[in-house]
Amino acid sequence: MTRQTSAKVNRIKQWSPIWVVPIAAVLIGIWMLYNHYQQQGALLTLLTADAEGIVAGKTQIKSRSVDVGQVVSVELSHDLKQVIIKARMKPAITDLLNEDSRFWVVKPQVGRGGITGLNTLLSGVYIELQPGDSDKLQLQHQLLDSPPVAPADAPGIRVVLTTAETGGLAVGDPVLYRGYEVGTVEQSEFDLSQRRTLYQLYIREPFDVLVSENVRFWLSSGFSVDLSAEGLQVDVGSATTLLSGGVSFDLMQGWPAGGAVADGSEFQLFPNKQSIQDGLYNEFVEYLLFFDESVRGLKPGAPVEYRGVRVGTVTSVPFFFSIDKPFEVSLQQGIPVLIRIEAGRLYENLTLKQLRQELEKAVQRGMHAALKTGNLLTGALYIDLDVSEDSAPDIEQQALQAQQLALSQSAGYPMLPTTRSGLSNIEQKVLMALDKINNLPVEQLLVQSEQTMQSTDALMQNAAKMVAQLDKLIANPQLQQLPAQLQQSLQELQRMLAGVSPGAPAYERMDSSLQTLDQVLRELQPVLQTLNQQSNALIFEADVTADPEPKRAEQ
Fold it and tell me: How far apart are CA 358 and CA 367, in angstroms?
């Protein structure tokens, strides 16, 4: 049987140098980990709706063509509505990541400014960083859909244009001053609350001094044609606007420049330069007109003229104010049209009070409005004012004018009498003539015409029979011998008359007999006078009468 013994364990009281190696390894690892994180920089988060072309571990983030970071992950959000891109930036770039920084994807694009991003065809797309001026650090940004036109710190001025109409401008369109490009449209946004479009313009230095308080901005289309009541107007812009359009600004003729404007100032965008001129007439008197004829071709903005001189503008066609039955009003009183007479178009320093007084006097003298054709090609109409001294309106017209006056007063506008245009009167007369023609007894006339044609046909048949009989009569041999017999009779009559002509014996005997007869009648004349005075003179002796003696002249 063996004997068991226990070993003695003695603690080493002296530290062993073998522990230096693992401790050093741990310290080196901690230092390397700390150094790795120190050199990595900030972790940037970018949000976008589409991550086309962006690859984790490959897509670079650049600023002025210098690598400043790299995409490390591309993931979808929890609600699957957007893409979350995480990128590791270099340590020296952290100060550039502020709330004004902008990020966008650079890739091949074809736009109004030409073809951009061709260098990414081989290297792949990358994300461009445009640092801002803010001091506040921000590590989460929205990835822009398109690159900004100019850097935030670019020298110049930015203004905002407002318009109630959408379209007409796009990001990248040029900003022109008298045809010279001085800036670019940066942003386009539609304000839902105010229902208007906002455009941000960047005007580079040194042209920013041209933007003052009194400048006006308008759309510059490359080529525009306007066929209105005032005629044909053709506007040809520059070569740049001919392809893409743009916006122009300038001072109106005779206007002072005004003071300088601050960055972010707001201006109104006009549709064209002519509308700016029309907008200068902001003092006017409005009138309500009622036309009982077609207003097709009359549009808002059409001129109101007085004997060829423009004095106002058509405001609304038709103008249906607060009435219950607008169609019934149009049918009975006429189509309402609202116009305005502008004081600035007449003469300077004319107050609205004076303008109202002058218009009231003109209405009392017989001023009225009529529709006239301004353009035969388009059928555009305008309103012509004139003063006529016609006879007073009849009872029906007076009643109609009273109803129209009541409606205009209920709408809060004075009424201007109207009359039909000359073309409308001609049209009305033509319609009346057509109505008379339509009321003619056409069927009765057709029946009578048919009877007349039948009678004429029968007459023609009888005439044909008569002509046939006449032909037979003419063909008769006896009738053909009649001319010869007539000629023979005429010859015999000529021979007979030749026997009694002067110099012939019969003629001399007849002449002698006539002379003897004349002598006998002369001898019988006294006897006849005696018998005329005394009828019984052949039986009793006639009384002898003295010869008449002429009267003696008085002494």
Answer: 11
E strands, 402-459, where? none
Q: What is the DSSP letter of 95?
A: G
Asked if 369 contacts 383 with a C-beta cutoff of 8 angstroms, the reply is: yes
The secondary structure of residue 279, as a DSSP letter, is T
Beta strands 216-220 and 266-270 are parallel
CA-CA-CA-CA torsion for 428, 434, 435, 441, nearest 10 degrees? 160
Q: Is the pTM of this model over 0.70?
A: no
Least confident of 28-37, 101-110, 317-326, 466-475: 317-326
- How many whole angstroms separate alpha carbon 117 and alpha carbon 127? 12
* H or E stretch at 201: strand 196-204
Task: Map tokens 């009622």 to a residue.
Answer: 290
Q: What is the pLDDT of residues 293-302, one digit of tens each?
A: 888 888 888 8
Strands 60-63 and 83-89: unpaired
According to DSSP, the residues that pair with 266 across neighbouring strands are: 160
Respond yes or no on whether the N-terminal peptide bond of residue 17 is cis (omega within 30° of 0): no
Report the candidate in 171, 168, 261, 150 with the shortest Cα–Cα distance to residue 216: 261
